Every structure is written in C-alpha cells, then in structure tokens.
Amino acid sequence: MGQTLAEKVWDAHVVRRAEGEPDLLYIDLHLVHEVTSPQAFDGLRLAGRPVRRPDLTLATEDHNTPTLDIDKPIADLTSRTQIETLRRNCAEFGVRIHSLGDVEQGIVHVVGPQLGLTQPGLTVVCGDSHTSTHGAFGALAFGIGTSEVEHVLATQTLPLRPFKTMAINVEGTLSPGVTAKDIILAVIAKIGTGGGQGYVLEYRGEAIRALSMEARMTICNMSIEAGARAGMIAPDETTFAYIDGRPHAPKGKEWDAALEYWRTLYTDDDAEFDVEVSIDADALEPFVTWGTNPGQGLPLSASVPDPESFADESDKAAARRALEYMALEAGTPLRDIAVDTVFIGSCTNGRIEDLRAAAAVVKGRKKADTVRVLVVPGSAKVRLQAEQEGLDKVFTEFGAEWRHAGCSMCLGMNPDQLAPGERSASTSNRNFEGRQGKGGRTHLVSPLVAAATGVRGTLSSPADLEPVG
Amino acid sequence: MEKFIRHSGVGVPLRRSNVDTDQIIPAVYLKRVTRTGFEDGLFAAWRGDETFVLNNPAFASGSVLVAGPDFGTGSSREHAVWALKDYGFKAVLSSRFADIFRGNSGKQGLLTGQLSQDDIELIWKALENAPGTEVTVDLDQRVVTCGEIVAPMQVDDYTRWRLMEGLDDIGLTLRHTDAIDDFETARPSHKPRTLV
Ligand code: SF4
C-alpha cells in the first residue's frame, strides 16, 4: 500500500525504532522564541549540556516586542527580562538570533518561510503551537512544549509516536471575497476544536492547489485550532517558485537534488487516510466567529445562534457561556455586531499578501469614527516591503495605525491589548476569553472582512461597501 | 524526576469542558524565566470568583483534578503543567485531553489519566456531595478509586513506565547518541542550515 505525505516525511526522519517505544525522530529545523525557551536553556545549563546543532536552530523575538518606539528600552520589565534572557542564552549557546530592530526580526512563523529555511520534507519544531504553519510547504511541522525544546536543543531529536492522518478535501472554486481564512474557519466549525486531535491534516483538492503559499500558510497555521498536531499541503510548482532565490534556498546542484526529492513528496494514489473530510469551496462565504473558541463560527450572513439549537448538551452549555462572555443576543445578525478595534496581523494573516488584500479594500476610504484599526506586519521585512509598495500610506490615510512587527494584539503580551468589554474583529487565530486582553471580546475574521469592518464599524465583507466615489 | 506509582489526595471537581491553556494560566504569567513558582497563575481568571471550586477551603489542598472533556486545548505552553504542579496537583483526570498538554504532562511527572465521562460524572457527584473526599490514583493497577467508585484509567504503556521509573527524557535519548551520529552522516547536503 502507498504512503501519505505525512508518513513519507516521518519515515525519512526515524533515527531509531524499537518495539513498544516511540520513534526517535530527527529534527531538521528548530525555531526558538523568548517565551517558551528560557526554562529550556536553564535546563541545559543545569545539566551542563551544549546545544547539539546550533546550525539547525534559529531564534527571533516576537511575542513580547513592542510595536511602537522600538528603539527605546522595553518599558515592561518582565517583557524586557524575557527578551534579554533569550539574547543571553543565544550568545552563550551559539544560536543565531534576530532581535528587535533587526531587519529579519518578526513572528517566528513568518521569518522561517521568508528566509527560505522552511522547505518541503523537513521536520520543523518550535515551542509554539502555530508551528503547523510551516506544513504549507510539505514539511512536518508541529508545536512542542518547553521540555521538548530542551530535548531538541540537547539531542536534535524527539521521541514521538506516529500521528494518525486525516485528509481535508477542498474541491471547487472560491467565490470572490472568500479566502483561505474562511476555508479554515469552515473546517474548524465542521470538525470541531477537538476534531483533529492526534491527526496530521493534509489539505488537498482543487481549491487548495489554487492557493498561493501565503494563503496555504494561513490554512496550515490554524490546524491546531481543530486540535490537530500538524497541517500539511503537498509541495508543487507554487511551493518551489516561492522558495527559489530566498537566502537559505539550496543553490545550483543542491537545488536540483532538493527539487528531485521534493517532487516525491505527495500522498500516493493507493495510500489510505484514517479519516477523510470534504469541504465544498463553491458554497463557502466569508466566515466569522461569534463565540469563544475558533470552532464557534458561522457565515457572515448568519445570525448569532440560539444555544438551545445545539443538539449536544455540552455544546449548548458552551454556547450559553460564550454568548454571555461575548455579550451577544441569539438572533442578532452577525453583520449588526459593532466592534471597537480592528486588528490586522499575526502569524495567521500578517504576511504581505494579507496586507495587500486589506489595503485594496480600504484604499481611498476613511475608517469608521468608532473603531481603531491596528495594522501590525508579521515581520520587519513584511513592513519594509509594504512600505515600498506604499501600503503604509494607504493604511494611515484610512486612519489606521501602522506598527512595527510582532505578535502584538494576537495575544496581548505587549501593550497592544483590548480593554475589558472591548470587542475586536481580528485576523489572528484565537478568540479565547481574555486572549487579546482581560475581558476583551474577539471575532476571528479574514483580512478582507477586517478591512471592511474597519470601514463600516460593524462586521462586514467588502461586498457590503459602497463603491469608492 | 520523582517516581509516580500511586497517589491519594483531595479530589477537585472542575465541571467545565474545553478548559484551554489560557484558562489554566493566562499569557501574562508566561513572562517569567524561572521554572518554579507558577501556582499563583493557576486558573487566575477564576480565582477571584468566590464560587470557584478552589476557593472552597475543602478543596484548596486538592491534588487530583477531575476535569471535563478536552482539557488542556489551545496553546502549547508548558507553564500550564508547571502551574498545576506548583499548586500541588499530582494528577488530572478527564475523558479527553489535548495532545500537547498530555505530552507535556508526562514529561513533567504530572499524570493525565483518561476515564470515561460516566465515571467522571460519578466522581464529580461524590466530590460535590462530600467536599474534601480523597481520590486514589493507582498508576500501577491503572485504576482510580473514590469512595465506592472504582474506575478503570487509560494511560499508555510507555508514559506509565516512564512515570513509574521517574525517567528523564534527555538522558533516555542520549543513550542512543551513536544512532543520531549515523543519521546525521547520511543526511542530504541540500537541507538548510541557519549558520553559514
Ligand atoms: S502571532 Fe499569535 S499565534 Fe502567532 S506566534 Fe504570535 S502569539 Fe502565537
């Protein structure tokens, strides 16, 4: 029988296999950031162990970095301590780091692909659940905990049990205004926040093949919100073209060898997935969340659901609790929900294409008086690129704030937070209670919906806007 | 790491499903760079609510958390495990755990035991009827007992062995350094490197 893509990549990385034990898997690329690494380096130091492969390790500062006044010392003492600790650890253990102010600084999942370090067929790990992003290249990429970070630093391997495989077949064509974000929100609403548990999701089908690399990253990024360990997409010409010429892409003969290998990375026709799920791209509309987990989403044209309409008792209870937290009434059209803040950024939707898409919607318009709009590029390079294209002007003329790169309001570890009771339309990936600030209320949306919402002040899609006159 | 064979302690009924790691410990506590002292962040958003279970003195010294399904979803932060351990929890019981959380727990010596939801409900009732009741988690026999209730517990063989032996992960792997060396020798040269 044939193999799935995930199985091929797994098998190519088994260092040791023994009956009754997890496989010992080799890790090709280890990404590090300031939040989940200090205790790992601390552990190495305590045990007197070195980093085995600093040349397969890369650190960047992202979660705590301010997006304003980045040339001043970081005001928040604990944020500063974490960042300074990362810098010290990288210096001590010989790990390359991109610090605040460096042109390659940015969200770890934006930086890896941008440098060309993320490549098909690699195993990629990071102490961050959204490491699944890198699966868009046909890499097996997954988040790990801090003791696993320490394990990879010390041994460049991880003991793991194979994951199960799930195919997500997305056939058909997306309508205008419908994006990768809407696909993944629809997938999570369909299979649930626990539906992917223990699985690697492989996104397949016509609609996936038609997507750009950046859109594929948006989809793989949120696999974790369906509970999955990883998301993957088989590499193709789109993938190879994206990598070609990037700083760490293979060159010359190495490129040819790599390409030959990459072309073997697909699920065989006779391979079997443990589960298959189908999504009809033709039927998709812009999706938004109404609740406090990413599975609580509906098409924008729908209304806030009645908790009693759920069949399952725990879904009912969860919906009741969510509506209370979100201060929403069942039956309210989603389009009538007014927000205070629009956040465009994060490792889900903070790449250049996302900014271009949002800018195209707001160009020549003014934001609603009742909202503040924050645009936070995913990396310093994305910010530079956007400025070269004049997108920063489009956003500032719209009335948005143009910020420096980082995670920012995705999780509110820096000063960019919602105040209690404030409501956001956010292009990030998590709408958990308090995620964007204590008491803050989050609606997850695509960059297009975020931009249109900034114009009208209520959840909207570009189709709801009057033409620019 | 301490060996875990059997543990008895006050059971704490946490009647909530989908308790994600932001709820277990909010992001603001992740700023620390130490490995200990995270107990103050545990369930921080709920600790101010006097009806929250840990605010009941009978449960405050609890060491066995009996939680609803899908415990530990969301971010991979291991601080969630540290916070539970630093507070004094030795075991968490649920009908379903998020994978990363379960993996993190095993490595830190926090037992995540899987019970049927029916048994969880029975234990919840028992604990609520008599706050302060002890729950015994027997990893050797893979059973949980609480008063009259005897519930089978699922833990995979490998995690069980590791916990019962108190074995550290890195030490285990470093016994196979030769295999890692061999693998590295055979790695294709087109694979990327971060240092040039
Ligand atoms: S942008 Fe958000 S989800 Fe992505 S790495 Fe940063 S905090 Fe995590």
Please explain how this structure is put together.
The complex is a heterodimer of chains A (469) and B (196). Chain A contains 16 helices and 19 strands. Chain A has 469 residues and is an alpha/beta fold. Chain A has two domains: 5-262, Aconitase, domain 3 (2-Layer Sandwich); 288-464, 2-Layer Sandwich (Aconitase, domain 3). Chain A has a five-stranded parallel beta sheet with strand order 5-4-3-6-7, sandwiched between helices. With 196 residues, chain B is an alpha/beta fold. Chain B has a seven-stranded mixed beta sheet with strand order 4-3-2-1-5-6-7. The longest helix of chain B has 13 residues, at 117-129. Classes of the chains: A alpha/beta (469), B alpha/beta (196). The interface between A and B is large, with 78 and 56 residues. Bound molecules: iron/sulfur cluster. Iron/sulfur cluster (SF4) is lined by residues 62-63, 107, 109, 128, 130, 346-347, 407, 410-411, 428-429 of chain A.
| CATH architecture title of the largest domain in chain A | 2-Layer Sandwich
Rg value of chain A: 21 Å
* CATH topology-level fold name of the largest domain in chain A: Aconitase, domain 3
Estimated helix fraction of chain B: 25-40%
Strand order of the largest sheet of chain B: 4-3-2-1-5-6-7
| Percentage of β-strand residues of chain B | 15-25%
Protein name (chain B): 3-isopropylmalate dehydratase small subunit
EC number (chain B): 4.2.1.33
Function (chain B): Catalyzes the isomerization between 2-isopropylmalate and 3-isopropylmalate, via the formation of 2-isopropylmaleate.
Family (chain B): Belongs to the LeuD family. LeuD type 1 subfamily.
